[in-house]
Amino acid sequence: MLDQIAKNKILTPDELAARRARWRQAGKKVVFTNGCFDLIHYGHLHYLARARALGDVLIVGVNSKESVRRLKGPHRPIQDDKTRYHLLASLIFVDAVVVFEEDTPLELIRLVQPDLLVKGGDWPVEDIVGADLVRAAGGEVRSLPFVHGYSTTSIEQKILNRNKE
Predict the structure, then answer these.
(1) Mean of the pLDDT values across residues 84-103?
(2) Residue 134 near residue 109 (C-beta atoms within 8 A)
(3) What's the whole-number average pLDDT of the chain?
């Protein structure tokens, strides 16, 4: 069953482009977000559900392992790629998961041309990668409220502090 979810939701960029064309033809409002999604927590769930509620389809771009390491350091990601991708794909409010190797999702945003680009509240709208592309195509860019007290970094710190006791 999990493999079927992966087949239907974890897409290559080419598969995503074809699916995006069908969604556009059907008049679906496509929301795009991205991140590392290393240790899925309540903050992620709240954010992704809220993003999906803003449109008909939610596409999640996920940094590859190599990209996460460049951005977060050699100790990350904590979860392996298969786990990160499948956890996201298993969420009912996520319609597609696509991996990107670059440090930013700019090329993926160019491919998807979302109607709405969203990031968490820790990202000011003016700093969201791809905002200019989305706006130039008539789309919208939003920074969604951040759920304080939930982050992968804080979970990692709790684990490290417990191991020191």
Answers:
(1) 95
(2) yes
(3) 90
* pLDDT class of 138 with cuts at 50, 70, 90: very high
* CA neighbor of 145 nearest in space, from 115, 161, 122: 122
102 secondary structure, DSSP code: S
Distance set, CA 25 to CA 22, 95, 96, 108 (Å): 5, 17, 17, 19
34 closest CA partner among 61, 68, 70? 61
Select from 3.30.300.130, 3.30.420.340, 3.40.50.620, 3.40.50.920 the CATH code of 2-164.
Answer: 3.40.50.620
The residue count for the chain: 165
Orientation angle between helical segments 2-9 and 81-89, nearest 10 degrees: 80
Q: What is the pLDDT of residue 24?
A: 95
Burial of 15-43, coded b for 16+ CB within 10 Å and e otherwise, reads ebeebbeebeeeeeebbbbbbbbbbbbeb
Domain boundaries of the chain, sorted by first residue: 2-164
Whole-number Å distance between alpha carbons of 13 and 126: 26
pTM equals 0.90
Q: How many other CB atoms are found less than 10 A from the CB of residue 89?
A: 21
> What pLDDT is recorded for position 75?
84
